[in-house]
Please model this.
Amino acid sequence: MEQFLQQVVNGLSLGSIYALIALGYTMVYGIIKLINFAHCDVYMIGAYVGYACMTFLHLGFVASLCISMLVCMVLGVIIEKVAYKPLRNAARIAVLITAIGVSYLLEYGMMYFVKANVRTYPEKTGILAMTFQLGNINISMLQILIVAITVVLMIALQLIVKKTRIGKAMRATSQDQDAAELMGINVNTTISFTFALGSALAGAAGVLVGIYYNSIDPLMGFLPGLKAFVAAVFGGIGIIPGAMIGGYFIGIVETFVSGYGGSMYKDAIVFAILILVLIIKPSGLLGKSTREKV
Amino acid sequence: MLEIKDLNVHFGVIHALKGISLSVQDGEIVTLIGANGAGKTTTLRTISGLKKPTSGSILLDGKDITHTTPRDRVKMGMSQVPEGRRVFPEMTVLENLELGAYLRRDRAGIAQDLKMVYERFPRLADRKRQAAGTLSGGEQQMLAMGRALMSRPKILFLDEPSMGLAPLLVQEIFDIIKDINQGGTTILLVEQNASMALQIANRAYVMETGSIVLSGTGEELSNSDDIKKAYLGG
Ligand SMILES: Nc1ncnc2c1ncn2[C@@H]1O[C@H](COP(=O)(O)OP(=O)(O)O)[C@@H](O)[C@H]1O
Ligand SMILES: [Mg+2]
Model:
């Protein structure tokens, strides 16, 4: 039982990270039907920005987190404007290949500037280093923070999407772009805003992972990015709550498999789940199985 | 109010509009009729700015708006009910209507227009919180019309509002269009249902494969033998 609860605690932290990244995939897919392969590298850059803030600028955790989110936000918007916007009316495959290109550019560009070696975040101090003991279950302050920050960000995201003018524009654009334009919605601004939101969340995930696992490198985005993408598909790509559920589900499955001695197979199992979901319910857990009548 | 001069539109090599010209005066109902594929929808999409013309010009109140965005055109008082309704399926009826007023900031005016739309379409009021995608075809048409009215347009464009609706409902929709026009909104109505459209229109244009081949008052065209043969079933 204790082993079980311990895995749940670990799974929630990992799931938070996947959920944060998955949201960016799903929002961008929802609005321009693009699988943004470069998204996982925005997360990597976020981790490096956090690293730089803490190591060189000696900033605290919260300041580093905010700066990283901000930098990623700008980066996401630039990527969209430079790489994807000119291809707005091009074939889907052309944009997809461009996204892969941007991903490589970011990864190997980073490698050129910061070298390929693994870097470690500074030693955790103060409350960040605290751990609690509940019976035989270990919970670190960091795990609590990761889950808490993720939940706060998700609530903020929900409020933005549901309540604000730009959030309504996002939903309208993702449901029917022409109709959105006929309402007077500026589709370009709305798409930029979507990239900004998704990238900020990825930046947050990057910093949280940096402190939690304490090691970052220019290719660190690949596997978590892939799994977050699986999470988004699992929940139903394009559906925001789906990405949240998917992220936590994949995170918990992964920790359970490793926790019970299967760490060699954890990635294989995640992808087996993806294949299973795609066979049973291709539109994902929360996906609509049929389109609305026209 | 609206004037279109020598408009040419291409889709790749397809020459969809071949130099069409038409005008709509203040307060009129003008209808554009023609068979499937004639270019009616393309005309409206070009007028609203969703499709860029290859050449020609569009004037609103004498001002050239050919190169403005759809957003600018909504601001200038143009509003469109697109072909196939195109309501936002996962949003509620109320959210759809609010999006119709997306560019407006006058809360009081918006609330007033919302009331007006609910009075005009009581069925929408009953379904305020329902997702638009779950409405019937007729209700979706009403929602698309209500949504277009929420921008308080000077000129309203309707693309085949009767498509796929039962005859009784079609009559209701046409009555509402006439009523909206009597409230002071100019209307350009695209229809395949020529007989109904000609009944309520002041003037009409007939389109065939990308060109306007005939025009006249609603009455003239209703009585024209060519039109009777081609569009009114004898
Ligand atoms: N997106 C498009 N791509 C290519 N051809 C199109 C497109 N939209 C319309 N067309 C062509 O333009 C012509 C006019 O179509 P449309 O304006 O939809 O006619 P209508 O509304 O009168 O039925 C048709 O030949 C149609 O095939
Ligand atoms: Mg049409």
